[in-house]
Write a structure and sequence with these properties.
With 317 residues, the chain is an alpha/beta fold. It folds into two domains: 3-207, DHBP synthase; 230-313, Rossmann fold (3-Layer(aba) Sandwich). Helix content is 32%, strand content 20%. It contains eleven helices and 16 strands. It has helices at residues 8-19, 41-51, 66-72, 78-87, 104-107, 121-130, 150-157, 195-202, 240-243, 270-285, 302-313, and strands at 3-5, 24-26, 33-37, 60-62, 73-75, 92-98, 112-116, 134-135, 163-166, 177-181, 185-189, 206-207, 230-232, 246-250, 260-263, 291-294. α1 (8-19) packs across α6 and α10 (270-285) packs parallel to α11 (302-313). The protein is globular, with a radius of gyration of 19 Å. It binds threonylcarbamoyladenylate and magnesium ion. Magnesium ion binds next to loops.
């Protein structure tokens, strides 16, 4: 499976593979996605297979512009329209009523479709060149840490993917925020657009992050998880002997005694912390340690998305 630096030529080649029914991994501003042309059910089926993703878990459809949006969405409620104008292109996913042309495989049989308009220049150039919407989940194995670098994709998915476009580390490093309209605006997954910003635009959101409902398997209790067991804890109270065989994930301060430490942002900048989060966990997970201890993160702004991923990485939902 070729891993190619994203250039106009490699993007054209990737677009050709997609038009021919291939599956291609590409960078977005949130995380890397594994895309197939939305209408091509054989290609979409390969995406599920490559990720070992259960078919009850619907995919996000990526669109370049309003024309592509109209091909997949039957109706945009007013609050969704407000959010689209304010945050697109960008890391926000809206759940809206689907057009009948969108295959049931993409939406797992739901009458709704998840759509987003990415801002990453490589994602946009690819969409433009393909000329069709791309169904693309995050390009990781189901349940594992999300990919913020092209190497994370090749390590996790290997030969199952036809081509990987390398656009460097993704700028936000955490997945899009997902909002449904049921019909009240409802938060299904906190993500790169802070909930506070969304509420400033359209008023209070209902929260529906419950792990017992299958509306968004990003909501499943065990998700975004490293192979190494991870625990959120007061890192200063972990016994010294335990530290020797453990990694530490901290927000600002490095800590003594751990086998490996990753600091998310020395300046305490949550944007930087979110961008480093999965990357740091990929690194710690690769060291084969007994455990990873993570500092609790305040659930405000981007901290809400990080805390959500930490909870699910522990299998707590
Ligand atoms: O930032 C992102 O959103 C990345 C990039 C590649 O765009 N994609 C991503 O996709 O995170 P994925 O498949 O890992 O997560 C999509 C989430 C899943 O939890 C899925 O259940 C939910 O979106 N979803 C998709 N369609 C849905 C629908 N119709 N109703 C409710 N949830 C839906
Ligand atoms: Mg995912």
């Amino acid at each position: 499976m070729p891993l190619l630096p994203a250039t106009p030529e490699s993007i054209e080649r990737a677009a050709q593979r997609l038009r021919d029914g291939g599956i291609v991994a590409f960078p977005t501003e949130s995380v890397y996605g594994l895309g197939a042309v939305v209408w091509n059910t054989a290609a979409v089926a390969r995406v599920f297979e490559a990720k070992r993703r259960p078919s009850f878990d619907p995919l996000i459809v990526h669109v370049l512009d309003r024309r592509m949006l109209a091909e997949v969405a039957a109706e945009i409620p007013p609050a969704a329209e407000t959010l689209a104008e304010r945050f697109w292109p960008g890391p926000l996913t809206l759940i809206v009523r689907k057009r009948s042309a969108v295959p049931g495989l993409v939406t797992a049989g739901l009458e709704t479709v998840a759509v987003r308009m990415p801002s990453h220049p490589v994602a946009r150039a690819l969409l433009e060149s393909v000329g069709e919407p791309l169904a693309a989940p995050s390009a990781n194995a189901f349940g594992y840490l999300s990919p913020t670098r092209a190497q994370h994709v090749t390590r996790a998915l290997g030969d199952a993917v036809d081509l990987v476009l390398d656009g460097g580390p993704t700028p936000w490093g955490i997945e899009s925020t997902i909002v449904a309209f049921a019909p009240e605006p409802t938060l299904l997954r906190p993500g790169a657009v802070a909930v506070e910003e969304i509420e400033a635009a359209i008023g209070p959101l209902r929260r529906d992050l419950s792990p017992d409902r299958a509306t968004a398997p990003g909501q499943l209790p065990q998700h975004y998880a490293p192979r190494t067991p991870i625990h959120v804890a007061d890192l200063t109270r972990v016994p010294a002997a335990e530290r020797l065989r453990s990694g530490a994930l901290t927000l600002r301060e490095p800590l003594a005694g751990y086998a490996a430490v990753r600091v998310l942002s020395a300046a305490g900048d949550m944007r930087e912390a979110a961008a480093r989060f999965f990357d740091a966990l990929h690194e710690l997970d690769a060291l084969g340690l007994d455990r990873i201890y993570a500092e609790p993160i305040e659930e405000r702004g981007l901290g809400l998305a990080i805390a959500d991923r930490l909870r699910r990485a522990q299998g707590l939902g």
